[in-house]
Every structure is written in structure tokens, then in C-alpha cells.
Amino acid sequence: MRLESLKGKRILIGITAGIACYKTISLLSILRKIGCELKIIMTENSMRLISPITVQAVSGGKVYHDMWSCERGEIEHISLKDFPDLTIIAPASANIIGKFTSAIADDLLSTTFLGIKTPVYIVPSMNTDMIENPFVIKNIERLKENGYKLMEPAEGFLACGVNGKGRMPEPEEILKYIDDDIIKNQELSGKNFLLTFGATREYIDDIRFITNNSSGKMGYSIYNELKRRGAKVKAIAGPNDLRIEDENIINVLTSEEMYKKVEKNIKDVDCFISCAAVSDYTPEKKVKGKIKKDKDDINSLKLKRTKDILKKVSQDNPDKIMVGFAAEWQDHEKNALSKMKKKSLDMLVLNDVSNKNIGFRSDNNQVTIYSKKNQTIKTEILTKKEIAHIVVNSIVKILKK
């Protein structure tokens, strides 16, 4: 069992008070062995069946259960909902399934569940009469209808002493089910992307430079969304506010360095996404060392245009899908459509930088997405992760045509 799709993933595990929770220990052990980073939420009653100390020792991850704990200034259900690449609830009792369906948030697991945006896999396990109860059946169907993944319970000898449906599948079966589902749903598997993000620095001397307020958050959110959907992604990153260690991200400083790295890596990609805020101008001549403030010759700074990376790459690669970003202060649509035409873009994402509450350095944004087919999507103010999801959805539609 290779479980390639799960290796290195951040996984949140929910454990409820089903007798099958002893199997979750083996599940945690397997996930730890393949390099997953684990956090576990246990319900109060599940801790009557297995010890949190055992769970923590086997998983190597922290165990959470207290709704009112607030360590390091973090509210647990808020920090935990943002942690996972995916969540596994195993075993899932009839009680927790009912809470999920009804949006009841009266403990840490049910409260965290309501905020999770990444995939959730639920493994029901209970007595046969309970799993076949019409209310439980209806709850399970409602969860499925809302995009949650529910694994069919196994049949066999149950703790109540009868043979029937309701057993929690073996850990290896659960992980194979999840692995198969992830691979099946990675819609960008086999697609190659090159992405730029962050700012650039155009040096006046060895100390001072021209730059802008790009934090890199929007581009990095798109990078992660593409990877989440199975794409192979390489990024060229200018200076940004993020501390990223990733072998698939190449760091540069100037617009010329960014252009050279893009040219070097563009050959085999299906789509190029230019999200970096590249400086339009650079000093004609960089001064070596540091210009002293008592110099008489600094009344003017002579600038020249930088290379238009997106325009040049688009001209040289007409067979590839080109996606650009535009930061506009006014005449938004006019400028966006003009840029699309001049640079032969398939899609352009417009940022209104006149609004200081969104965009640069903010965790939120609001964009308008233009495509060649005159389709326009204007988002609400959303987190940049949510914007990334919408942007990648639009790219997927173009790739399918």
C-alpha cells in the first residue's frame, strides 16, 4: 500500500466514542509512518474508551478535546480548522453525524467541523439497528449531498454480539479508500504550471531599491490550490512576506532575474500564471556601494522600463495558456481588457488597489476575472485562499476547452 497522495499531508483526525476507536490507533500509526503531520480531536466520551496519552504517543501529534482551551493566544477551533489538508472522522458515531448534519456546535470536534474548508472523510461505525435507522440514513445522505465523503461501513461480528452492518473498516481499507478518492479527484493531475508571485526589487545602489507592497499571499495561495488539485507546479518568487521553504519555489530579487528564470522553466508547462507585482521601471545605472547623502548629483534618478515578462513570454509561447494579474487604481475594466488584448492573455485577474482594506498585504481580496470568451466573474471580499479556489476553477474551465 503506497498511499502516495497522503504522504506528508497535514491531517486532522476526529475520534468519537465508538467501540471501534481502538482501530484508530493503528490508523494513526500508519499515517505517522508515511510522514503525515497529525492533530487529533477526541470527544469527551471517546476518552473513556482510549487514553489521550496513548493516542498522542502513537501519533506523535497533539491531542485536543477542551472547547475552552486557548494556548499561545489561539482559539482552538479556529486554529484547528485551518490546519488540515484533509480531515478523517473515524469512528464517526450516530451522535456526531447528527451534530454535523444539524450544524450543532457544542464540543470542539463539532465546532471545528463547521469551519473546515478542506476535504472531510467520515467513517460511520455503530450498531446495525442504528446504522439502518431512517434518521441516521437521512443524515448520512445529507452529508454526502453537501460534498462530504462517507465510507460505507463493513459487515461482520459487532461488539454487541451480532453479525451485521456497522463495523468500522480496517485502517488499511480506510486509507486506500481515501487515497483512491484523492487521486480520482485530482483534476489537474498531469498538468504543469509555472507561476510567479511576490514583488521585485530594482536597485538604486547596493542598499536602496524600488519595490512595491506585494506580500506574495495571493500567488502563494494559488500555488497551494494548484498543488491541492494534483498539478505539478513550479514558482518563481520575488521578495514577499512569507517564510517559505519549498524545493519547487525559486527565489529571485530583480525583474531581470525573474524573467531569466521564467524563460528557463517555461518550456514544458501547460499554463503560465503571472501573479508577481513586477516593477515597471528600474534605474538606468546601479551605483556600486551606497550613495552618500551629501552627494550633489542625486537630484534626479534616471529610470528605464523593465522587460514586460508576461507580454514577452506570451509572444514566445502562443501554444500555452497565459493568465495575468492587473493592479489598477481607476478605469478598471478598460485597463484590464486593454492589457488582455495587448498581451494575448486567456484570462486576467483584476485587483482594485484603490481599496486599502484588501489586496496588498491583506489576507483578503476582491477580484474581477476576465476571460477571452467575454465571461466576467466578480467576487465578494473573500480570503485569498477562497479567491485562489475561484481563480483555479476558471483556469480549469479554460484547460477543458
Please tag this protein with its features.
single chain; 401 residues; alpha/beta; Rossmann fold; 13 helices; 22 strands; elongated
Task: Describe this entry's structure for a reader.
With 401 residues, this protein is an alpha/beta fold. The protein has two domains: 4-185, Rossmann fold (3-Layer(aba) Sandwich); 192-400, CoaB-like (Rossmann fold). Helices cover 33% and strands 23% of the residues. The chain is built from 13 helices and 22 strands. It has an eight-stranded mixed β-sheet with strand order 13-12-9-14-17-18-20-21, sandwiched between helices. A six-stranded parallel β-sheet has the order 3-2-1-4-5-6, with helices on both faces. It is elongated, with a radius of gyration of 26 Å. It starts with 9 loop residues before the first strand and ends with a helix. The mean pLDDT is 90. Residues 193-401 are annotated as: Phosphopantothenate--cysteine ligase. Keywords: Decarboxylase, Flavoprotein, FMN, Ligase, Lyase, Magnesium, Metal-binding, Multifunctional enzyme. Residues 1-192 are annotated as: Phosphopantothenoylcysteine decarboxylase. The active site is at residue 160. InterPro entries: CoaB-like_sf (IPR035929), CoaBC (IPR005252), DNA/pantothenate-metab_flavo_C (IPR007085), Flavin_trans-like (IPR036551), Flavoprotein (IPR003382).
Give the tally of structural domains: 2
Count up the helices. 13
* Name given to the CATH homologous superfamily of the largest domain: CoaB-like
Uncertain regions spanning at least 5 consecutive residues: none
What is the second-level CATH architecture of the largest domain?
3-Layer(aba) Sandwich
Oligomer: single chain
Determine the fraction of residues in helical runs and give it as a percent range. 25-40%
The side-by-side strand order for the widest beta sheet comes to 13-12-9-14-17-18-20-21
Biggest β-sheet strands, sense, barrel: 8 strands, mixed
Overall morphology:
elongated
Structural class: alpha/beta
**CATH topology label of the largest domain:** Rossmann fold
Strand content: 15-25%
Q: Rounded to an integer, what's the Rg over CA atoms?
A: 26 Å
Tally of strands? 22
Average pLDDT figure: 90
CATH top level class name of the largest domain:
Alpha Beta
